[in-house]
Amino acid sequence: MKSRYSIFSLARNAMNYHKDWERAWRSPAPKAEYDAVIVGAGGHGLATAYYLAKNHKMANIAILEKGWLGGGNTGRNTTIIRSNYLQDASIAIYELARSLYEGRSQELNYNVMFSPRGVLMLCQTEHELRAFKRTAHANRLAGLDCRMISPAEVKEIVPIINDDPNCRYPILGAYYQPRGGTARHDAVAWGYARGADALGVDIIQNCEVTGITREGGKVVGLETSRGLIKTKKVGVVTAGNVSTLMQTAGVRMPIESLCLQALVSEPIKPVIDCVVMANTVHGYISQSDKGELVIGGGTDPYNNYSQRGSFPSLEHTVTALVETFPIISRLRMLRMWGGIVDMTGDRSPIISKTDVEGLYVNCGWGTGGFKAIPGSGCVFADTIAHDRPHPIAEPFGLSRFAEGRLIDESVAAAVAH
Amino acid sequence: MLVVHCPVCGAEGDETDFHGGGQAHVRRPATHDPVNVSDEAQRDYLFIRHNPKGLHFERWRCDRGCGKWFHAARDTVTMEFKAFYGITELPPRELMEQATGEWATYFKDKLKAEAKS
Predict the structure, then answer these.
(1) d(CA A48, CA A51)
(2) pLDDT tens digits, one per residue of A252-286
(3) Is A255's CB within 8 Å of B42's CB?
(4) Label partner for A23 (CA 20 to 30 A): which of A55, A219, B1, B41?
(5) Interface contact B79-A304, CB threshold 8 A
(6) Nearest to B20 among A241, A254, A301 (CB)
(7) Whole-model pTM?
(8) A302 at interface of B, judged by CB pairs closer than 8 A
(9) Which is nearest to A73 in space by CA: A222, A220, A241, A216?
(10) Which CATH number among 3.40.50.2000, 3.30.2270.10, 3.90.79.10, 3.50.50.60 corresponds to the domain B3-90?
(11) Cβ-based burial of B1 (10 A; exposed 0-12, middle 13-18, buried ≥19)
């Protein structure tokens, strides 16, 4: 049992010059066999392992990670959390995740710094205004706490916004989710890792899975850089690298891997205390607790596995935001990076069983996976434990692509997702 | 920044002068046999994509030049273009031989056919 983090443990360790903090998770050697193995220790994978252990009492499980945990898209996103999607299936899973974020710090005993500071999605064309009104009605029917707000209210919430009615993309209103916000993405990964480890999950880093071994139609194990690991249940949660791994089991995926970039500015005094997404001009922005403006945009338009993006996409994003927030035009940018996102045709995720017995896949979160981590982990763990799709996961099955039953979110959230 | 070369008009420019059109050599089943298109075949055509880490074959369009579509072979890790070729053509033989995974399967028959002729 791990000791709890609290004000008292902080004080006690401070007295002792922080020499006695125990490790947040172990680094065990892989066992020869597990009841279930999760591939990929990002947020979704760690949450899946945590809920398998916690809700479904599976103790003999491992999570394999080729690099370090939380080092992929979990540590590369712009940390936005919202649930105001258009389709019912999306609303169900994203709202489950958003509501679970509210209690994460308490349940995990790890401060994930969830900050429900409000998310504004700007309407900058008549078309976008109408589209968001439609989303607002859909969300209201689903019981979400969201509303359309006027340009005057937008200006009140975000005083630095350009409210010139004669600019190219004037603010015509915004779709506002006051309970949306941000969280610290690393802490989400670390909190779930610590929680899973405490429940007996083996987190094995620097262990790359090179192939999925099948016997007939069943999974029997995994080939890894640290030897063969036997298991009958495998959950693949490898985002941008999902196609290549699933191919080793003979499963072809409706996925393309693209690069999505983000960047942060030099730290400045607080100027914006909510998240603003400008979908028409392709940019979104929030301010971190350190004062850096956290900026994201659209993906590069071609397949990429290099975790490095191209300058035209960045320029496009920054141009859009400078027009929307003229006061940031002189800011210098500190860092930029890219992550490899797994895009599906309908811009909705895949949480699914496969034709191979014991092989499950959770991917396709594309440009918007961070917000869904707790919900995705919860329903994917349930899917693996009971070998049938959780009701919330069911619409996201792989079969939807053959049945034409798409969950089309590319209209409502083409860019910022 | 990618530097792209159009094999049709010979124009060279950066990626903003061109338009990436996704995976190359996708066959629309209904064009060839409209009566017998299974759900699976239509799914494969619309959604299933080769997504290799390494050598990939794509369509591009010469947006600000001749406006024609063409093919390109590119490495998705190094971002290096290996070849540009016409929209009705197959890639150079050595690239078809280097292809891995799903692309290797796709080019196997083409290589055989080429060897015969």
Answers:
(1) 5
(2) 999 999 999 999 999 999 999 999 999 888 899 99
(3) no
(4) A55
(5) yes
(6) A301
(7) 0.95
(8) yes
(9) A241
(10) 3.30.2270.10
(11) exposed
